[in-house]
């Protein structure tokens, strides 16, 4: 809890305006008419005041402002326990975690449900954020157990915008200038010449005369544009309808990257028989085009010799400067990063349609009983085409030990179809002070996937054995479930929720196929008791408690690992008499694979003060996961393979979530609101079948992370560095922790972890006068550490004085701090503090009201994204994807935006 004490010290800085709360309250006899807020829950809706589970509801007023191009960007930093890591790569998917996830190597992604349709994976890049009305984030098992095997890592429910009775037209557009916020500091050409002359004088003849900043050469200032238009109204005067189109174009920072997204969305809400029969029909089509810049060029831009020019008129490799071995006249060493980008094209076309039909029928003879039917599908089509210029460094290589200018021309395609249907009956009845809601249903879901890859078609005739069209059609994954929920309420003060789901997955054998999941939650509305009724200070107080069990069955490509399968050879035969039989080899399998299960506990408090001018939620939670699914090395002859999926151990996650909404000032000409959230999370491995699994490979057989009992997943496992009297690390000198007189792997120890102890978010919203608005969003992460592989790989003299391939390479300036001769990758010196405070966005807008009519408005705004990062970490950004190992990332752009929102 040491880091949580830090939170308590930092939190006042986030809430410094809290003292500005306007304490004047209305007369206690004044009654305000309020519309009870309704929140999405699993397979239904519920009044927010009646929730028994831990759920965060976010609507358009809560969303991040400014140039938001992705759906997850609307809510990044807006909910306690929700962590979103967005990449700088245009069009890439974010990593989303709710309370840290609950698995080790199986999927930790939350389930994403859009308008009642569970989508395949967390694929939000194809959804237009302008179409989203609200999010509900389900965190505890009492809320997510109704989704059984898919609710283990939390659930995110998305509702898209629907039609209205009145005709409304909206136009939203913005243009963003994307700039490089920071570069990794490496030596300039002049500095590098000095270092080479000092430490590797024998290499001085290889130096050039240029001062090339390779990062400047591969990055650019680019532009993003987004135009969205929507029409909402009543079709034929009776059917609420909405239609929208959007086009977004993001060039990205790398000189060859680009992402374009075009979407169309339609929503129809017809009703019949005096609203006894209602339909909600939604459909979204998107087309994404992505030219993926070769991101390996980012690593090479850090390493390539800065004394060399980009171009070389005498180079045989398309005129780009490259290292060539004198003895063989073949390319060696690090490739020219500009050539890597300019001479390779990696294009993907991604088409997606997902839609859902929801029917809600309230029986005429029994209005308390409703039949709800959902049917939907999610279809994805992906095709890729990669080409490399033969007359480039990367187009020249060996085929069957013969070097030549071959180039590349390869194709890939993938087709995914996810079909879903569920039917449920809901019964709601009030008996005096008792409220009853019962729901039961059945769900069917089927995942179908077919993919293929061509290999390099240019080599078909030269190397037919290793280049062929490779179709991959795996069996469908089928999920079926029976589920139910019971909500009981008494006197609007005492609430009880019981839910249950029996899930079946085709991933497991018949003996392990079905799992039972469920949860129980209770709540007490203390503020409704007589001793608090009418209290002017405490306006809301509710105590919640829950326990539930969820499951996990997604272990990636291993769809039917319990099957006994064989590979039949087309070239090897065994003679039996006069007959030749094809030889078959048994494939690996695991008949004992079963559900990963999580038992989760939650204790929560919802509170409000000063007529809910201050509102908040506080949750304490713990999750115990057993039968962890992981892909691990297997024993000799075990399951007939070297590596495969197994149930290997136990994991525990626990933490605290706090969320606050503060209406600090509410005046006619000035309002000031704050939304603050803070989360403390700790994850530990409790049990492993084999304790000590190496992770975090950094080359040459070295590993700097581990799966080990008593530590967090991917905890750093390194040697303890010894320092001299000047604080400089002594090369190759480590602490003999076990005292045996020699330094071996037994002396490695756990030094820090990649997961943050504490995450925080703060949003400030203000209106000034009747026209101006202001928004500012901050995020913080405390206690997360990063392994600096960029410096570990490059910051040593051996990187410069490479006698093997007769090349020289640049290095991060961290070399000044170490003066290492060789790489010392296992040292804890390279485990760096990655804590940060980020100012994500600042937005200022001005609204012209009634500018061409009473119902028309025009808002003009300016915004900045990725404004400021305060951190001790020296590289580009401590917020990285790769489980805490930084070997270079696509930088997140600093963006400056001008936009309009017009409504008619």
UniProtKB/TrEMBL annotation:
Domain TonB-dependent receptor-like beta-barrel: 303-866
Name recorded for this polypeptide: Iron complex outermembrane recepter protein
Signal peptide: 1-23
Keyword terms, alphabetized: Cell outer membrane, Membrane, Receptor, Signal, TonB box, Transmembrane, Transmembrane beta strand, Transport
Chief localization: membrane
Single GO MF descriptor: siderophore uptake transmembrane transporter activity
Membrane topology category: Multi-pass membrane protein
Domain (TonB-dependent receptor plug) ranges: 48-155
Annotated PROSITE patterns: TONB_DEPENDENT_REC_3 (PS52016)
One biological process term in Gene Ontology: siderophore transmembrane transport
